[in-house]
Write a structure and sequence with these properties.
Layout lengths: L17 E7 L6 H15 L3 E7 L6 H8 L4 E5 L6 H11 L4 E4 L11 H9 L4 E5 L6 E2 L5 H13 L14 E4 L16 H8 L5 E5 L1 E2 L11 H18 L1 H29 L4 H24 L8 H29 L4 H24 L12
Helix pairs in contact: 7-8, 8-9, 10-11
């Protein structure tokens, strides 16, 4: 029998129960206080937690400060590509090892002391928990001005078609990691990752834990006009996901209305240039059809932009031609049997023709072929 000693390998550390994901950019001044506060919560409540700092290559002292603090449960990940708050959070979720996940800001606006209450709500069966400014007991900093309060309320109102929670704009979130397993593909724009998760993860039980939202005292706010415009773009994407037919139809109608404007502008310009009336009318129609096609391809049916533009254009013209025939036939039928008012008959014909145009374009010209699933992180 061999008497040689057996080499014992070090056991692999067990993954933490909780992963706290914090996107950062130029937040070096706030990190010491934030991480010390999280450490206090960890110790007081016995939380087995890791912190993932998803930093967008900040040109400050972030690296040095994190190293000097020396917390072995804090992991700094420097991101140099696809930077932005929402992509940073998604990258953090990919790296997270905990069965529970918390997402929070680094500017000290979100109180770490509320994390245990959010976890308790998860353990009580919630799909997702929000640290809420507007739930009963919640509050915002007294230094918030009227414009900021109005901006927040308007943004919340715009989110109503997707959720009835009181603070869907909150960036302070808690959920079980398995919530992401069957989520649809994520494509958030801007900073409202919470609304993205509510919609794409099809959350049914969303609860709100009241918090006091403190205004930042150090660093610069990331809430700019550009971010607010990205929020509108994000709402459009969510509308296409949640209400695909209605959202596409509305966009199709808006594009159609813009085509009328294009037609009239081109016609007026050509007539002013003494182009013969018959040629000017035809040219205006051709230009409006072309612009309608390009705008529908870019916005209404944006998911199909990788398809052949030539084939789609021919299909679009064909669909519009069929719609024109339906418009004409319905107008004459209504005029002959239901009313003797030509304008009313024409309106019914336009509705019928537009419906045919939209249906043919959605089902045949701009067919959806993308797989709308996202693998779990």
């Amino acid at each position: 029998m061999s008497t040689e000693p057996t080499e014992i390998e070090d056991p692999v550390p067990a993954p933490p129960a909780l992963s706290i994901i914090i996107p950062t950019y130029r937040e070096a001044e706030n990190l010491p206080d934030l991480l010390r506060a999280i450490d206090g919560v960890r110790r007081e409540h016995g939380l087995d937690a890791e912190v993932l700092l998803m930093d967008d290559d900040s040109p400050d002292e972030t690296r040095r400060i994190v190293a000097d603090l020396g917390y072995d449960w804090v992991h700094l990940h420097v991101r140099t590509h696809n930077r932005g708050l929402s992509p940073a959070v998604l990258d953090g979720l990919t790296l997270a090892r905990g069965t529970l996940c918390v997402v929070m800001d680094a500017d000290l606006s979100h109180p770490p002391e509320r994390i245990p209450d959010m976890i308790a709500a998860l353990n009580d069966g919630a799909d997702l928990v929000i640290g809420s400014r507007y739930a009963p007991g919640g509050s915002t900093d007294a230094r918030w001005g009227l414009l900021r309060r109005v901006n927040s309320r308007v943004a919340t109102l715009l989110a109503r078609p997707f959720t009835n929670v009181k603070d869907p704009m909150s960036g302070f979130l808690a959920f079980r990691r398995r919530l992401l397993d069957d989520a649809a593909a994520f494509n958030p724009v801007g900073y409202k990752i919470g609304l993205e998760l509510i919609v794409k993860c099809r959350c049914q039980d969303v609860r709100e834990v009241p918090i006091h939202f403190a205004d930042r005292t150090r660093g610069r706010s990331k809430l700019t006009v550009a971010e607010q415009l990205r929020y509108l773009q994000h709402l459009r994407r969510l509308a296409v996901f949640r209400y695909p037919n209605v959202a596409c139809l509305i966009q199709f109608l808006i594009v159609g209305a813009s085509g009328v404007v294009v037609n009239l502008v081109v016609l007026t310009a050509l007539l002013a240039a003494f182009v013969p009336k018959e040629l000017a009318i035809a040219a205006a129609i051709v230009v409006s059809i072309a612009t309608n096609f390009l705008m529908n391809r870019r916005f209404t049916f944006s998911y199909a932009r990788k398809g052949s533009i030539a084939r789609q254009f021919l299909g679009f013209v064909g669909a519009c031609s069929l719609g024109a025939v339906v418009n004409y036939a319905v107008t004459l039928t209504v005029l002959g049997y239901l009313t003797d008012i030509p304008q009313l008959a024409a309106l019914v014909g336009i509705v019928a023709g537009t419906g045919i145009n939209f249906t043919m374009n959605r089902l045949f010209v701009f067919k959806r072929t993308l797989v709308d699933k996202r693998p779990s992180p």
